[in-house]
């Protein structure tokens, strides 16, 4: 329900944002400033990276992804209160911040991600929808209280994302879509659905990072809270 409300809300937000040009970045997250040259250089680097895509690096990216996943499972064995996915996300963030991975391996991981997102996303969305859809459970959960809670979650998180995004020099519309709506989705594949409805697919990297950091925080907090109240 939260994911459905996020998809619908993202589409409506984009239409509403057309009436407020100063709040709408039309796919750009950061407001125009004196760093335009730096952004142009980054765009050129991204184009060069895409043009150098090759099968070998895609395979390397696959191995890197599985390596982080396996390390997360090992960490979860020694600290079972924290989810393996949370460990994996934290390790990826640490690796990115500290830059312990050479650029070649980072580019390989990016290429592997592009292959999955561009080629397998529709299949993954279809498979998840068929496998996880339980009409009986869905019918039992769809009470008016549950719908109000989901709607409150979407509105609260999206409003906070827009306010804080504006304070940090980001376009409110893009902030709400990436940090607000996408954090009410079911995960990485459903980020694609939210961004597609908002016509903001170029923001997939920001949405994925926000989703993973937020998800890791929730997993860690919920793990400790579950132990406290069980």
Can you offer a commentary on this structure?
This protein has 230 residues and is an all-alpha fold. The chain has one domain. The protein is 78% helix and 0% strand.
Count the domains: 1
Order of helices and strands: HHHHHHHHHH
Q: Major beta sheet, specifics?
A: none
What is the count of DSSP helices, taking H or I runs of 4+ residues?
10
Choose one word for the global shape. globular
Q: Could you give the count of β-strands?
A: 0
* Radius of gyration, in angstroms, nearest whole number: 19 Å
- Which range does the strand content fall in? under 5%
Structural class: mainly alpha
Span between termini: 26 Å
What value does the average pLDDT take? 79
Low-confidence stretches: none
Percent of residues in helices comes to over 70%
What's the short story on this structure?
Helices cover 78% and strands 0% of the residues.
What's the arrangement of secondary structure elements?
Layout: H1 2-17, H2 36-51, H3 55-78, H4 84-98, H5 103-132, H6 135-141, H7 144-167, H8 172-181, H9 188-198, H10 204-229
Helix pairs in contact: 1-8, 1-9, 3-4, 3-5, 4-10, 7-8, 9-10
């Amino acid at each position: 329900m939260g994911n459905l409300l996020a998809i619908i809300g993202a589409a409506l937000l984009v239409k509403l944002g057309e009436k407020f040009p100063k709040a709408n970045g039309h796919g750009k997250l950061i407001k125009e400033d004196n760093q335009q040259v730096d952004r142009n250089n980054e765009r050129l680097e991204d184009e060069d990276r895409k043009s150098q895509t090759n099968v070998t690096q895609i395979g390397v990216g696959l191995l890197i992804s599985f390596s982080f996943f396996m390390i997360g499972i090992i960490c979860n064995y020694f600290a079972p209160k924290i989810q393996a996915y949370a460990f994996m996300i934290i390790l990826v963030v640490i690796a990115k911040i500290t830059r312990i991975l050479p650029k070649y391996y980072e580019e390989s991981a990016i290429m592997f991600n592009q292959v999955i997102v561009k080629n397998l996303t529709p299949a993954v969305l279809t498979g998840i929808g068929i496998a996880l859809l339980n009409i009986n459970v869905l019918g039992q959960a769809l009470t008016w209280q549950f719908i109000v809670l989901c709607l409150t979650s979407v509105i609260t998180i999206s409003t906070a994302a827009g306010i804080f995004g504006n304070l940090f020099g980001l376009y409110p519309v893009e902030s709400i879509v990436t940090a607000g709506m996408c954090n009410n989705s079911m995960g990485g594949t459903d980020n694609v659905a939210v961004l597609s409805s908002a016509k903001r697919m170029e923001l997939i990297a920001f949405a994925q990072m926000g989703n993973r950091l937020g998800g890791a925080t929730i997993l860690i907090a919920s793990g400790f809270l579950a132990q406290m109240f069980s």
